[in-house]
């Protein structure tokens, strides 16, 4: 570990936006398990709007999102349809 290291946080009024990745996956639970196998964890804050979305943190604390192709959020669902199988 690096001395005085502070992991990234979700954007707020005190913390500016930081880049994070959003991955569209066909099998959400398998993708969560795969990332956990590499040391990622589920974030304490999860979406209440979409049961097909998981917010994860990589081992250094960077947030990333996994979205199922069955997302209930139209923009995510439409993007999955555009990208195809």
From TrEMBL:
<dbReference type="Pfam" id="PF18029">
    <property type="entry name" value="Glyoxalase_6"/>
</dbReference>
<feature type="domain" description="Glyoxalase-like">
    <location>
        <begin position="15"/>
        <end position="67"/>
    </location>
</feature>
<dbReference type="InterPro" id="IPR041581">
    <property type="entry name" value="Glyoxalase_6"/>
</dbReference>
<dbReference type="InterPro" id="IPR029068">
    <property type="entry name" value="Glyas_Bleomycin-R_OHBP_Dase"/>
</dbReference>
<protein>
    <recommendedName>
        <fullName>Glyoxalase-like domain-containing protein</fullName>
    </recommendedName>
</protein>
């Amino acid at each position: 570990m690096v001395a005085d290291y502070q992991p990234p946080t979700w954007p707020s009024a005190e913390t500016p936006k930081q880049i994070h990745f959003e991955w569209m996956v066909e099998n959400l639970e398998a993708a969560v398990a795969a990332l956990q196998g590499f040391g990622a964890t589920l974030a304490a804050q999860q979406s209440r709007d979409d049961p097909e979305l998981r917010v994860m943190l990589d081992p250094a604390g960077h947030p990333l999102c996994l979205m199922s192709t069955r997302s209930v959020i139209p923009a995510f669902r439409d993007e999955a349809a555009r990208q195809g199988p």
